[in-house]
Here is the input.
Amino acid sequence: MSGPPASAVHVLEAPYLLFLGDAVEPGFAKTALGLRDWAGDKCLAEYALPDATVTTGLPRMSPAAAVAGGARSMVIGVANQGGVVPESWLPALLDAVAAGLDIIAGLHTRLAEIAPLREAAARAGVRLIDVRVPPAGLPIASGLKRTGRRLLTVGTDCALGKKYAALAIARGLQARGMDARFRASGQTGIMIAGEGIAIDAVVADFATGAAELLSPNAPPQHLDVIEGQGSLFHPAYAAVSLALLHGSQPDLFVVCHQPGRSQILGTPGYAVPSIEAVIAQTIALGQLTNPAIRCAGISLNTAGMGADEAAEEIARTSKRLGLPAADPIRGGEPFQRLLDACAA
Here is the structure.
């Protein structure tokens, strides 16, 4: 199976050394913890400043020791307030560069804008990779039908589990022996997958073309499971959702929803749409590039519920819609039925 051209996606070199900076709150280390949970086979060790109290549970190594152990890149696993690189981190980053590690970040501060780091990386011949910066060479979309099959996760809102659903579905199908692959469209997903494009950072004219590159031509039975972004009903993020929908040309989609959420995140006055409305809107808009698009099922984020309440919500949603519904993280028989629908 051919993949996107190397010049058009971020390609990251593993194994990773996870840098925790001076994090004392697990919430600020969500990138490192997410990599540990979803890409543990790519994570060799962690590295932190003396004041850090957060740990991934991985062995703690210096950059030089990590390189000796096989590490190829150091990932900044901290998403701090403002997405900045504090001066207190610079000696550690320079140590990693001197050891021969690429530096990977998904922060707002661009690594190449830090002059001492840029100059050291040039001398050492290593890369500074900001995964939120779109790579060069992105095309305008062609709209041409591609071979292979595609599934896209879509949402009733943003930040409710589209990435986790896509990862769980891809891995669940792989465990069944299917030729399935997770395709990343956001920064953490890119670090987990090792490649991808942060669609929300692409200039609008090229966003749909970038989405086409994420899932190239493939054998007939291959299934790309594409990480969704935003929501078609979000007043700020609907544009990126539509570009991803048109460029992905999904044969199937899974609607992701968090029961109990009533307002669109960060936009008071906008109600979360019904799952039914999202299904109808996704089909209506998705038919432009794939007339055969259909909904495979529902992924529910029941993290705030007890086991019995979650089971009742899953069963109630499935019965109401006549589609398989599951919480992919809880798994179980409902998730197996959702996988059946995704494999069909």
